[in-house]
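quick q for whoever's on today - can somebody do inverse folding on this one?? i tried earlier but teh output was garbage lol. tokens:
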């Protein structure tokens, strides 16, 4: 049923009011107590045609208001809400209800706020994207600072290791000489004991001194003490040498043939303190030729994978390191009996900033860095995992780096 702009059975609104409504940008509907439109301004007709071209009458706007719009404040009051029409149109409707000359009157204002809502959504989306970008940049900056710090520490460690080598060298040499001197003195003491004999007058007194100083125990224990000290110095020497090799900065140097077993053992020696309390290590080394690479970068890959393997083991477990060759490629696998990786995460573990570790335990860059290093060496990393049973990372590297064809070839 169609309604005219004004209904003759209701009092006519003042001409000034109607004129004001005619130039009003928002759609305005004047409704009587029976929910009949007594007046609709031109903006209401235009909005009705936009919202529903098949029903361009203002009644189509009225039909979109929920029933609770007519019952605010027990019949007298106001109501306001947004009305979404599809995905593109949002209307903001306000209904004002009151009594006029004893009859209920309703004054309804409807605005098309689609563009404003779209702008707000776009601003919200841009704000969220900026927040994500900021967090990524902040994380990248933190990682770059950490990388720079680690590079500085690496150079410092190499310098410190070089300085430590000198005192370790002469302490090691002195311990060897001291053992020789001690052996000579002990031989002399034993010879004196045999020459004096029981018949000599001083023998009882010397025997008392020998017993009081516990010479027999010293003679037996001193060589063992010297051997243990020398063994400790040799171990420190090995750690310092491993640290020098691990921290060697040679990224601008050409790749050279490297003994990967030596790099593995050096890296294990460095990280073993973090693993030894909960990890049983198994090594199954095959025959490996020297592989062309940057040793310090490959050692960094070993370290990241070994630390990850250790972190995946909660209490007690096994890490198995194996090596071998396949044609002109060398491979190194690092397997753990840890918690494993969920299937949905396997495809993303090499993505920058992606991590399954708890907050504060990982930046999500370790495996991404490993991937980049191995790709730079024209190799690949293969991973297999079973949730609750552990993971295996297999590094495959060409024994010889591919050579670029010369321009004359």
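ok took a stab at it. sequence:
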């Amino acid at each position: 049923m169609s309604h005219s702009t004004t209904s003759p059975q209701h009092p006519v609104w003042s001409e000034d009011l109607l004129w004001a409504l005619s130039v009003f940008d928002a759609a305005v509907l004047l409704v009587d107590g029976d929910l009949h439109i007594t007046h609709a301004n031109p903006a209401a007709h235009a909005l009705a045609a936009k919202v529903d071209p098949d029903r361009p009458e203002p009644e189509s706007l009225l039909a979109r208001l929920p029933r609770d719009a007519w019952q605010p404040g027990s019949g007298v009051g106001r109501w306001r809400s947004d009305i979404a029409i599809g995905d593109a149109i949002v209307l903001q409707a306000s209904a004002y209800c009151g009594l006029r000359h004893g009859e209920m009157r309703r004054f309804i204002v409807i605005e098309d706020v689609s563009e404003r809502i779209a702008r707000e959504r776009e601003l919200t989306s841009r704000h969220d994207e900026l927040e994500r970008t900021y967090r990524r940049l902040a994380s990248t900056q933190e990682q770059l600072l950490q990388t720079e710090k680690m590079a500085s520490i690496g150079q410092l460690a190499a310098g410190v290791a070089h300085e430590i080598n000198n005192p370790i060298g002469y302490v090691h040499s002195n311990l060897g000489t001291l053992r020789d001197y001690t052996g000579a003195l002990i031989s002399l003491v034993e010879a004196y004991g045999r020459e004096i004999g029981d018949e000599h007058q001083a023998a009882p007194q010397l025997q008392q001194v020998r017993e009081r100083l516990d010479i027999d125990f010293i003679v037996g224990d001193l060589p063992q003490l010297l051997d243990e000290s020398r063994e400790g110095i040799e171990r420190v020497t090995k750690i310092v040498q491993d640290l020098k090799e691990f921290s060697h900065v040679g990224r601008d140097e050409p790749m050279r043939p490297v003994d990967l077993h030596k790099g593995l053992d050096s890296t294990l020696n460095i990280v073993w303190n973090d693993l030894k309390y909960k990890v049983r290590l198994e090594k199954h080394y095959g025959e490996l030729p020297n592989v062309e690479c940057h040793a310090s970068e490959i050692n960094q890959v070993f370290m990241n994978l070994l630390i990850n393997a250790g972190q995946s083991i909660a209490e007690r477990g096994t890490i198995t390191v194996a090596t071998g060759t396949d044609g002109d490629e060398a491979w190194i696998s690092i397997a753990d009996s840890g918690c494993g990786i969920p299937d949905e995460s396997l495809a993303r573990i090499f993505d920058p900033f992606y991590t399954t570790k708890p907050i504060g335990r990982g930046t999500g860059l370790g495996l991404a860095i490993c991937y980049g290093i191995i790709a730079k060496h024209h190799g690949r990393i293969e991973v297999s995992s079973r949730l609750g049973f552990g993971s295996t990372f297999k590094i495959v590297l060409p024994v010889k780096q591919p050579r670029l064809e010369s321009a004359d070839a």
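fwiw The first helix runs from residue 15 to 22. also The first strand starts at residue 27 and ends at 32. so keep that in mind when u check it
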